[in-house]
Every structure is written in structure tokens, then in C-alpha cells.
């Protein structure tokens, strides 16, 4: 940027300050900014505002935002900060006890004793605590076709926003297909691989983990379903079938529950999941 451009920007800023002096204002005089989920075109005098609005409906990317000098406008900057704070809350906040009571899920713990340990030590979220292993062996029915796990993962918000609609839809779909289901469980501070240990304890055919995904600035509500047929110590990521982007702005949770039930029925039929399941499905 040359000296002439810098001088022009400085003059614009000084003119703005003179027009809107930062004098003392009472609390009642302060402007209230309300953030909604609706996109806002803040570009000054856009060439074609309708194209910008159309583009905003096709992607969660931050397009059509304006600037003042070299910086974002205040509204867009604050919206960015709000979304960033929401993503942080999704990671650090625990699923509430009230929510667990509402959905009727027993609480199971991994070996992660704290959120900090869970985030820094991946293996701590992949294995159950000794107390949880004993509880599952004592109270959970064995030899069912399907075992459902609800896992907080990296977004408690995703769990609380989607499970109330997704879980009943999934259970209803499995019931209509006469597929037996074990006691659904909620596993706190859990990673995907913990499903392998649970499957070995209850001796199910298919284990399903409904887990909160890493939040981004577009959404903190995205949930994924990880399905695996008869996992063992030799199971790798390619053996897992993944259904992602489950949230109200992606695949709606009710629709996702019905679809997951269909996929489970297919996995049981071909006795395979992951890449092998996809290959067998393509050969049909």
C-alpha cells in the first residue's frame, strides 16, 4: 500500500470520527445489536445485491461482508466473535444432567477424568473407566443386533440439539424392521473408537456412535453417525461407515434417524461396514 492510499484511509477515518464523535453516552443511548441466523449483505453499494444474497443461501462461508478501510465492519466482526465463542462453548461445555434425564440415557464414563485430559490425551476418550465396564456387564442386555451410543465428542451442543429428534426416529426405524436393540447409552468425554470396546462387552452385531463433531465457525451443531459391523482389535477407520453433517442446516435429525436405520439393515444383511460395505453395495 503506497503513501497516498494510507493518507486517504487516515482521512476517511478522521472524517468518520468527526461525524460520529465518541462522546459519553448513557446506557440507554447505546445501540443494541441483535444477531440472527439470517445472512446480511453489508457491502456498500454492491454491483448486484441479488447475486450476493443468492450466494449466501448456497454456502455458510462469510461472503458479502463489507469493510471500513482495511477492517471488517463492526457487525461482521462481532458476528465472527459470536460464532467463535459458540464453537468454544460447544467443546468445553458438558451435556447437562437435565438433558440426560430428558432423553433417559444412562451415563457412562471414559478414562478421561477431565475435559483437559480428554482434549490432550486421545486415548483417554477411547477406553471406558473400570466402573463403567462393570456397569455395562451388569446391567446392559447382551447379544442384541444393534447397540446405540450417544457421545459428546467435541460438541455437546450438537448432542443436545439433535438427539431428541434423531434417537426416537432411529429407534422407531429399527423397531419397524424388527431389529433388536440394546440399552442406548450416553458416554461422556468419548471418542469414536470407544464403540469397539462397548461392542465387545455387549456382543452386538452393529454398534452406532452418534457423536458431536468438531465445531466450526459455520455451525457448532453438526453430529455424525459412525457404524461398524463386528469390530475387533484389527478394526481400522476404513471399516467404519460414516454419516455426517446431521443438523438442522444439513441433514435434519429426524430424516437422518430414518436413513441410519436403513443403512443398519443393509449392513446386517451384507455383514460388512465401511469400504467393504460400499463395495458390496456398488455391486448390487
From TrEMBL:
Which enzyme type, at the first EC level?
lyase
What Enzyme Commission number does this protein have? 4.3.1.7
- Cofactor(s) this protein requires: adenosylcob(III)alamin
> What Gene3D superfamilies would the database entry show?
Ethanolamine ammonia-lyase light chain (EutC), Ethanolamine ammonia-lyase light chain (EutC), N-terminal domain
Top-level taxonomic group: Bacteria
**What processes does the entry annotate via GO biological process terms?**
amino acid metabolic process; ethanolamine catabolic process
Gene Ontology molecular function, alphabetical = cobalamin binding; ethanolamine ammonia-lyase activity
Cellular component annotations (GO), alphabetically ordered: ethanolamine ammonia-lyase complex; ethanolamine degradation polyhedral organelle
Mind telling me which InterPro entries this protein's record contains?
EutC, EutC_C, EutC_N
One Pfam annotation reads: EutC
- Indicate the family of this protein: Belongs to the EutC family.
User: What is the protein's known function?
Assistant: Catalyzes the deamination of various vicinal amino-alcohols to oxo compounds. Allows this organism to utilize ethanolamine as the sole source of nitrogen and carbon in the presence of external vitamin B12.
Describe, as the record does, how this protein assembles with itself and its partners: The basic unit is a heterodimer which dimerizes to form tetramers. The heterotetramers trimerize; 6 large subunits form a core ring with 6 small subunits projecting outwards.
Q: Which PANTHER family match?
A: ETHANOLAMINE AMMONIA-LYASE LIGHT CHAIN, ETHANOLAMINE AMMONIA-LYASE SMALL SUBUNIT
Q: What is this protein called?
A: Ethanolamine ammonia-lyase small subunit
Q: What is the species of this protein? A: Kyrpidia spormannii
